[in-house]
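Good morning C.,

I know you're traveling, so I'll keep this short. The sequence:
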Amino acid sequence: MRLLVGSVSGKRAVFAVDGDKAVNLTEAVTGIGDDLAALIADPSLLEQAQEKARELARGAKGVAVSDITPALPVSAPPTIICLGLNYTDHIKEGGYEIPDYPALFMRGQQSIMAAGQPMVRPGCSDHLDYEAELMVIIGKGGRHISEAQALEHVFGYTVFNDGSVRDYQRKTHQWTPGKNFDATGAIGPFVVTPEDLPEGASGLKIESRVGAEILQSSNTGNMIWSVAQTIATISEYTTLQPGDHIAMGTPPGVGHAKKPRPRWLKPGETVEIEIEGIGICASPVVDEAEIGREAAE
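The tokens, ready to paste straight into the viewer:
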């Protein structure tokens, strides 16, 4: 099932998407609420939603997907964990050694925003970079999850742009500053449940672009650590919770590694991240000063 959290006429709801049309599950099924948290927490509610979506698709008029303003799939993800180095060619372009354990870091909630919302280039740096990534949303939580059972803990998959402010990322070995500027990590808009994708969302084309300029183009089958391996590894040290987000790392082609000069995102551009079978996450780039001016008016 393809899900979209968003607003129509200012009212937020959960929608089931079929092509360019969507049906409102929040209105149709009691208890769903206005983001995916309830569906993630209650598998029986998800089953009801899937059945209702099939029923509504047969007879309901629905709304145009283009009329829905996307919101975050989960309004407040408990934890956002990201892999830093998960494609061999990306590791090489960054000048790193291939690790034998995933490079993991965390993002705070202030750093993320919904697809379609502005990606903010901070006033203190013009080194804003893009990173196309597969993102996993955890359904069933747990600790010490085996690799063999890990995919049973996945609620769904979405698209992530791990916007990174590179000069600040390199101020510390921990990467935290460069990965946590406000409104730099775009998520969504669609969440696809596992039955509609290949196992572990492997073998999907993943691409970033600005207009006709293709910045990155690879395949999720090229990840070093699969979704199952990543879930098992993370759950060795922490208890995963329903609604946690895991970003699976980016392929080669990031802006800081472009030759002969880096390719930074600029205000006025719109960066798109697309993953086959999931969708496109588009973000207009704006300057922080412009956001400040608009707020003052």
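Safe travels,
E.
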